[in-house]
Design brief:
The protein has 13 helices and no strands. The protein is mainly α. α6 packs across α9. It has one domain.
Length: 309
């Protein structure tokens, strides 16, 4: 049922864009796109994925799970592939967390936490980039104060983990789902891994922004770098919410809406969004090879029976 709701929202948003935009102008921009810039965007994303896999490896090690970086790269690209092509069967994050914990005793919670916290680490970087870009744009002062107040609150929560996490661990929650209490979030190893990973998250997000700058330039989307950073990071946060089919529709509508708000062409933004989908699909193809090496979709069936690991 939830899948159909997501599909409906994606279809409605894409349908609205098709109705409101000049599609002939958009396709004309795509026909004359500079594909060397598209290749540059693809390179940015692939390099960024390597940084993300390294970030995940560090966080997992901080939680007590040591795996070779090559294995983490395989699982990371596999997760990216599954998220794009098989979201109705198993989430990419669920798959890589499961495979990380597979054949390891008591590794389920640390593996799941490594995936979740890797995403949280990325969200912190996204919010930081948005905060930085705001100061170079004509943004209402109230928005800047509210956003940065929220960011500062988030950092305060992170800096005080050693104060509130032990209290949560001592809570009365018991039973099968109480395994999270064993997570060593206040250990020196994890704390070091967390703060060490933040620069990698920032590099990844900056590479993603630069990839979009290349794509925008390929189709004539005229925006400042800071407008790109503000737009891309906010849209990434919105499309990560489980409201649409893999962010489809929300992402494209966000790009068009922000581009028009900044005084740029909606058709150019839509063309950039189409190129971004091509780049995402191309960058995820190594994950398809990993899936084939692991035995194809049979590994997903094993995931259904082994989720409690």
């Amino acid at each position: 049922m939830m899948l159909w709701i997501k599909l409906l929202l994606s279809a409605l948003l894409l349908g609205y864009l098709i109705w409101s935009l000049d599609l002939s102008a958009m396709f004309a921009l795509l026909k004359t796109a500079d594909w060397s810039l598209v290749l540059a965007a693809l390179l940015c994303l692939i390099i960024g994925q390597f940084f993300s896999a390294l970030r995940w490896a560090w966080l997992a090690r901080g939680l007590g799970l040591s795996v070779q970086l090559a294995r983490k790269l395989q699982l990371y690209f596999l997760g990216m592939f599954l998220s794009l092509f098989l979201p109705s069967i198993v989430g990419g994050d669920v798959a890589r967390g499961y495979l990380l914990a597979k054949d390891r005793e008591n590794a389920g919670w640390p593996a799941a936490a490594s995936v979740i916290l890797e995403r949280v680490n990325g969200v912190v970087a996204l919010a930081t980039v948005v905060s930085f870009c705001m100061f170079f744009l004509d943004i209402p002062a109230l928005w800047i104060w509210l956003w940065n107040g929220g960011v500062l609150l988030g950092f305060a929560i992170l800096f005080t983990t050693k104060l509130w996490w032990p209290k949560l661990q001592r809570s009365a929650w018991q039973g099968r789902l109480s395994g999270w209490k064993t997570l060593p979030l206040t250990s020196r190893a994890f704390s070091t891994a967390w703060w060490r990973s933040l620069p990698l998250s920032l590099i990844f997000q900056l590479l993603v922004v630069q990839a979009h700058v290349f794509l925008g330039a390929a189709v004539g989307l005229e925006l400042s770098w800071f407008a790109y950073g503000f737009m891309i990071c906010l849209v990434a946060l919105a499309s990560a919410l489980p409201l649409s089919f893999n962010g489809l529709g929300i992402r494209e509508a966000g790009y068009v809406g922000f581009a028009v708000w900044f005084g740029a062409s909606g058709e150019a933004a839509a063309a950039m969004a189409a190129l971004w989908i091509i780049v995402l699909i191309t960058a995820s193809l190594p994950g398809g090879i990993v899936l084939w090496q692991l035995g194809g979709t049979k590994i997903l069936k094993r995931d259904q029976s082994g989720r409690g690991c």
